Amino acid sequence: MHVQSSTFAIGPTTLLGVQIGKEIRRRRLAAGLTIEALAERSGVVPHHISNLERGKIPDPHVSTIIALAKGLGRVAPGELIGTIKDLSPRALEAARLFESVPGEVQEGVLQVLRATTRRRR
After folding, report:
1. Residue 92 belongs to what domain range?
2. How far apart are CA 27 and CA 65, in angstroms?
3. pLDDT exceeding 90 applies to what percent of the chain?
4. pLDDT greater at residue 117 or residue 9
5. How many CA atoms lie within 13 A of 113 on its CB side?
6. What's the CA gap between 106 and 44, in Å, rounded?
7. What is the pLDDT of residues 28-65, one digit of tens each?
8. Using alpha carbons only, how large is the chain's radius of gyration in Å?
């Protein structure tokens, strides 16, 4: 079984993917597993694990997270997803609102945020 994607993604985009990827890498290394070993145990292809760990997968799919949690052993999928607990309530609200609007609105919001941050530097 090779899990690479599913029709159910869990957003918020990018930040969640980076957070989950870091947590998967941390737990994989703590367990003494290589990417290939985790791939064998989870059924997730190695390049997908690598991309996920490097934050290159903006919306990790639930099926992938579940498979990797099983492959890591004694890890509940929620423990991997729970890494967003460090976000403030305002950041979580912003992420939920962001995900609820169409893509073209999201792009406009991102442009405003990028312009605002550039001005503050």
Report:
1. 88-120
2. 13
3. 35
4. 117
5. 8
6. 30
7. 999 999 999 999 999 999 999 999 999 888 878 888 99
8. 16
Residue 93, classified by CB atoms within 10 Å of its CB into exposed (0-12), middle (13-18) or buried (19+), is: exposed
Cα-based distances in Å from 113 to 89, 97, 106, 116, 120: 18, 15, 11, 5, 11
d(CA 47, CA 103): 27
Our CA angle for 119, 85, 67, nearest 5°, is 115
Please give the model's pTM, rounded to 2 decimal places: 0.59
Whether residue 30 is found in the same domain as residue 55: yes
- Please tell me whether residues 27 and 78 are part of one structural domain: yes
| DSSP character string of 31-95 | TT--HHHHHHHH-B-HHHHHHHHTT--SS-BHHHHHHHHHHHSS--HHHHHGGGGGS-HHHHHHH
With H, G, I as helix, E, B as strand and everything else as coil, classify residue 14.
Answer: coil
